[in-house]
Amino acid sequence: MEQILQTKLSFAPWADPRTRRLPGVVPFELEDWLEVDTAYGAQMALRDHLIATQPDEVMGLDVSARPAAEELYDMALALLPRLGFAITQDAVTRPDGVIVTLDRDAPIKTLARLMQNDFCLMQPDPTGASPESVLTGGALCFPSGWRLPEKFMKPMLRIHQPIAAYTPELALRVQRLLDGVPPGRGLMRGTASRSDAPLSDPRSEGDLRHGSQQSRYIRVERQSLVRLPNTRAVVFTIHTQVVRPEALSPDQAKALAEFPIRLAD
Q1: By residue range, what is the domain housing residue 200?
Q2: Is 84 inside any structural domain?
Q3: Cα(235)–Cα(55) distance, rounded to whole angstroms?
Q4: Is the dihedral of CA 80, 138, 185, 220 positive or negative?
Q5: Among residues 7, 4, 76, which one has the least CA distance to residue 246?
Q6: Would you say 157 and 180 are in contact if contact means Cβ atoms under 8 Å apart?
Q7: Cα–Cα distance for residue pair 186/234, rounded to 1 Å
Q8: Please, which residues bridge with residue 91 across strands?
Q9: Closest CA to 66 of 106, 117, 103
Q10: What are the residues facing 111 on neighbouring strands?
Q11: Which among 241, 226, 210 is positioned nearest to 5, based on CA atoms?
């Protein structure tokens, strides 16, 4: 499959001192949450294909999360017109010209065909078995080495297996971060990696592989947390951009030379 590339990188975590250091979390206003970038059309064509051919692989929704999914549906639709979407009572015309029928009864599928980013709903465990938030729903078309079916309805510590660095102590800190997300504003961080993998790179747990300094592409994920005010669910979104190094701006390239991407161990 041919790689889908952005012609420019809208966010470079290594170029901002706030996001290049761990934990690298910064607040943002909700009007800056969603984005349409230079690869929107190509990324959405792949999303449409995956949703049509592998729906159980890329989407999931627990019955307990339906109110949160519907709240996210309403919130996201309200933000789309400023990004170039034309919305009528029954349909949305995307910036790439594709018309998507609105269906609030299928909120995950509808949003997944509109928004360029992947998204996961994180909520208290409906069974009460775990003190951690669990992944109750979402759409994951562009994973980097994981699969939604393996993580669905799992708590945070279990979701991050087999990552050795994600210890119980780190899980507690992450849970405090989730608990502290305020409504009305979001929190975001970024990751960057050298990669030759395709945009959609689902892999089962234990199937580990990483890039090298010789890898052809730079993959950046803008990861955001937003609290839904009514259901109190936290939406974790992942906006993925893949570029060739020569697509970096002069400032991004200069910062990368000073603060190189750390390769995974």
Answers
A1: 17-258
A2: yes
A3: 20
A4: negative
A5: 7
A6: no
A7: 10
A8: 101
A9: 106
A10: none
A11: 241
The pLDDT value given to residue 28: 96
d(Cα 93, Cα 44) in Å, to the nearest integer?
13
Mapping DSSP to helix (H, G, I), strand (E, B) and coil, where does residue 106 land? coil
Which range among 99-108, 156-165, 248-257 shows the weakest confidence by mean pLDDT?
156-165
Query: Is residue 203 situated within a structural domain?
Result: yes
Q: Determine, yes or no, domain membership for 11.
A: no
Q: Which helix (H) or strand (E) holds 91?
A: strand 91-93
Burial of 48 per CB tally in 10 Å (0-12, 13-18, 19+) = middle
3-state secondary structure of 245: helix
Question: What single string gives the DSSP state of each residue in 118-141?
Answer: EEEEEEE-TTS--SSEEEEEEE-S
Residue-wise pLDDT tens digits, 47-70: 999 999 999 999 999 999 999 999
* First-residue to last-residue Cα distance in the chain: 27
Q: Name 44's Cβ contacts closer than 8 Å, sequence gap at least 6.
A: 94, 96, 98, 113, 116
Peptide bond before residue 250 is cis, with ω within 30 degrees of 0:
no
Number of domains, the chain:
1
Q: What is the pLDDT of residues 160-213, one digit of tens each?
A: 766 666 677 776 787 888 888 999 999 999 999 999 999 999 998 777 666 677
The CA-atom distances, in angstroms, between 140 and each of 45, 199, 226, 253 are 15, 11, 17, 30
Residue 114 CA, chain-centre distance (Å), reads 14
The residues near 19 (Cβ < 8 Å, ≥ 6 apart) are 13, 26, 189, 190
Inside any domain, residue 5: no
To the nearest 10°, report the CA torsion of 35, 40, 46, 49: 80
